[in-house]
Amino acid sequence: MAAVKVIAFVVLALAPSMQCTEQRANPIRKVVTMLQNMQTQVTAEGEKQEKLFEAFMCYCKNGKGTLETSIADAEEEDRKLREDLRSAHRKA
Predict the structure, then answer these.
(1) CA-CA distance, 44 to 79, in Å (whole number)?
(2) Using a CB cutoff of 8 Å and minimum separation of 24, what contacts does 86-91 make?
(3) Distances in Å between the alpha carbon of 58 and those of 8, 30, 61, 67, 69?
(4) Which of 2, 16, 78, 83 sits 20 to 30 Å CA-CA off 59?
(5) DSSP-assigned letter for residue 25
(6) What's the total number of domains in the chain?
(7) Alpha-carbon gap, residue 18 to 8, rounded angstroms
(8) Structural domain of 13
(9) What is the rounded distance in angstroms from the CA atom of residue 88 to the CA atom of residue 67?
(10) Rounded to an integer, what is the distance from CA 91 to the centroid of its chain?
(11) Angstrom distances, CA of residue 10 to CA of 1, 16, 20, 21, 23
(12) How far is CA 35 from CA 41, 49, 69, in A?
């Protein structure tokens, strides 16, 4: 019975110091955790930038064809308007 009391006393006496040790984080662990969080953040930002880049490249590839079509249509309309203007000038 005395041994149980001694063990209980030792456990109760050491419990606060064990909690203090557990509550204080190891400085190395803090740095490692910070680096892991930074790695996660940088990876997420990289994925976001890659999506933006892909959208931009898609616009560049598709936009070129759209612009070329628009330019060709405008040149054709310009040609027709010039012909109409010449024919109107000849009639007058």
Answers:
(1) 52
(2) none
(3) 71, 42, 5, 14, 17
(4) 78
(5) P
(6) 1
(7) 15
(8) 2-91
(9) 31
(10) 64
(11) 14, 11, 16, 17, 20
(12) 10, 21, 51
Compute the distance between CA of residue 37 and CA of residue 27 in angstroms, rounded to an integer.
Answer: 15
- Tokens found for residue 85: 């203007």
Give the angle subtended at the CA of 36 by the CAs of 32 and 42, to the nearest 5°.
140
Report the Cα 46 to chain-centroid distance in Å.
5
Measured CA to CA in angstroms, residue 46 lies from 33, 56, 57, 79 at distances of 20, 15, 16, 49
Task: Say which range, 4-8, 61-65, 67-71, 79-83, has the weakest mean pLDDT.
Answer: 4-8
pTM: 0.42
